[in-house]
Design brief:
single chain; mainly alpha; 9 helices; two-stranded antiparallel ribbon
């Protein structure tokens, strides 16, 4: 019996530690969730952009070059648009991964997304299977970028506002009691001087004007 008890007791601390670790995991991830989102989207852009530098490797390469060809009325050939799109995607990815120039990075990101969705209009015969509700495989490839747009909006929503000071939450700041609350000096307690003409409490004889001035 003693051996069984010792075995159970040794299992309980390990199981409780694992349980507490699982409980604190969401809170720990929540602190870095938008960093994980930003870096993961950036890595995808760097990866897919690098593939476009290699001819006939990326399946999206042909669609991207033909969209640029249609938008520019053939002024930009595929040999020029392909490396430009690849460089744009790599710069977007690098900006998201490093967090440098976040507003400029997101501006280029949304411009790139807008150009990507124009394929649904300029390449209608390739992205729709005769019906707007039935996209082809190429159309599905374009439409799934809605997820990337939502990720970009989430990242933009959590950027610090320009010229704004550190945000204050409840229990923090000037009127709060948080760690950043300023230290206030306690208000001094001012005791009122006794009134010589006041009524005595325990039946003592009243102090008249002569008593105040020291006369018998």
């Amino acid at each position: 019996m003693s051996r069984r008890r010792s075995a159970v007791e040794t299992r309980e601390p390990s199981s409780s530690a694992a349980t507490s670790g699982l409980r604190t995991l969401p809170a720990r991830y929540r602190q870095h969730s938008f960093t994980v989102l930003r870096v993961s989207v950036g890595l995808l852009f760097v990866w897919f952009g690098a593939l476009k530098f290699l001819p006939d490797v990326s399946h999206a390469e042909d669609m991207a070059t033909r969209v640029v060809h249609e938008l520019t009325s053939g002024a930009v050939p595929a040999d020029v648009s392909r490396p430009l799109v690849a460089l744009m995607e790599i710069l977007i990815g690098a900006g998201l991964v490093t967090g440098l120039l976040p507003r400029l990075t997101l501006l280029v990101f949304f411009a790139h997304m807008a150009g990507t969705f124009t394929a649904l209009v300029v390449l209608r015969s390739e992205v729709w299977d005769g019906n707007v509700a039935v996209p082809t495989m190429a159309g599905q490839y374009v439409i799934k970028n809605v997820v990337l747009v939502a990720a970009g909006l989430a990242i933009a929503a959590h950027l610090p506002q320009a010229g704004a000071g550190p945000s204050r939450t409840a229990g923090d700041g000037e009127t709060g009691t948080g760690p950043n609350a300023p230290v206030r000096a306690p208000n001094p307690v001012v005791e009122a001087a006794p009134d010589p003409t006041s009524v005595p409490v325990h039946g003592d004889p009243p102090l008249g004007a002569d008593a105040v001035h020291g006369h018998p």
